[in-house]
Amino acid sequence: MKPFTGLEEKLLMKRVVLGDKEAFAEVYDFYVVKIFRFVYLKTNSKEVAEDITSEAFMKCWKHIRALQEKPKEGISDHETIGPLLYTIARNTVIDYYRKKNEDHVGISEEMKDRIADKRQNISEKLIIKQEVEYIINVIKELRDEYQEVLLLKFVEDLPNGEISQITGKSEGSTRVLIHRALKSLEKALNTKENIRNSKK
Questions:
Q1: In whole angstroms, how far apart are CA 54 and each of 9, 21, 36, 58?
Q2: Choosing a second label site near 66 at 20 to 30 A (CA), which of 30, 112, 183, 193?
Q3: What is the Cα–Cα distance from 190 to 186, expressed in whole angstroms?
């Protein structure tokens, strides 16, 4: 299924606001795998990811339908279905960890395959030549917000504008955060590489 254009997403949003279940089914079919992967990489649990994914779609449906009760506000030009779903999924994961009293958001083994598919691209951007497994282990040591933007940018392939909507930051702040995350990852990799070389 090809990605929705911006206009198509806005039209789908309006149809869902009016209660069109077929429109929301289109949204579900397109995004369910993406949202599940996003949640799974954050929770490392298939069962938890399935539950949170289902909950995220239910919350999204209720949120969009609730807009019908606010005709004066209308639909924001900046509120499109994709970023809205990721935001809801992200917040639901945060709630899950709060309930579990777990602050760390891990990255699962599945990320290895996802990163491997883009290895050359990531290497060019980060000047990284180490093995994918090694990179993932270093990413796990970064701050949670760095892990998140690296996941959204290089695994989910989302543009900065959508990442900013998901994280609630401005596009400028998002660009800075991604830059800092990349620099932090590069620094961590270089530090570990120096330590490894010193032990040889």
A1: 20, 16, 9, 6
A2: 30
A3: 6
DSSP state of 130: S
Closest by Cα among 175, 181, 110 to 143: 181
Q: At what angle do helices 160-167 and 81-100 cross, to 10 degrees?
A: 40
pLDDT one-digit tens code per residue, 94-148: 999 888 765 545 555 555 555 445 444 444 444 334 455 677 677 778 888 998 8
Neighbours of 152 (CB within 10 A): 22
Higher local confidence (pLDDT), 194 or 146: 146
Put residue 101 in one of left, alpha, beta given phi > 0 → left and psi -120 to 50 → alpha: left
Q: Cβ–Cβ contacts within 10 Å for residue 36, how many?
A: 18
- Give residue limits of the domains in the chain: 1-105, 107-200
Query: Under CATH, which architecture does the 107-200 domain have?
Result: Orthogonal Bundle (1.10)
- Locate the DSSP E strands across 100-162: none
Give the closest residue to 55 by CA, choosing from 83, 32, 30, 29.
32
Length of the chain equals 200
CB 115 within 8 A of CB 154: yes
Domain covering 1-105 assigned CATH 1.10.1740.10 in the classification: yes
**In contact, 63 and 27? CB cutoff 8 Å:** no
